[in-house]
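Example record for the data management plan.
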Amino acid sequence: MESYTIFPQEKIYLRDLAKKQLEYASRPVMREREALWYRHNDMQDSRPMVFIETDTFWNDIMPELKCSTALGREIESHILKEIASAELIDDDKVIPDFYEVEIHLEHQKFGVEQKKTYADDGLGYHIEPVLEILENDFEKLSPTRFGFDEPDFILKCNCIREVIGDVLPIKIVNGTNKVYLTNLF
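Corresponding structural encoding:
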């Protein structure tokens, strides 16, 4: 089980960041954006929605993290992404009035391990084929196995709640099976 330590000065800083996120989330424009997204998703007349995916360039705009503990840095980075979205990007993203904690299921798809070869510059990777010829390699496949360290996850959630939970409520989401529709077409 992992140790989730956050220093007292980090707690103060993280609470201030959480309050700043809540301030952005509470602005009337966020309710307007939310309504626009619902109309958009219902295919009703509305203007085109704009959402800038910052994951590909987050390291270029991210401020230097101030926290030194692992959990502190995770919380800080997560909240800073929301704040940066409001302050630097100002697209149609709705800033949430909660803090998402992702459940990560450990899994090995079809019982085989994917091997990735990363580019020297770290900007890409190649997934090595597991199956060369299905008829010859079929026996390598088995049912996908899933695992979840529930006690560790509960401990982590409780630590986050202790730090910012009274400012930003915790919302547990499935981080393993997120579907991003931007790459489907």
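Summary line stored alongside the record: Confidence is low (pLDDT under 50) at residues 179-185.
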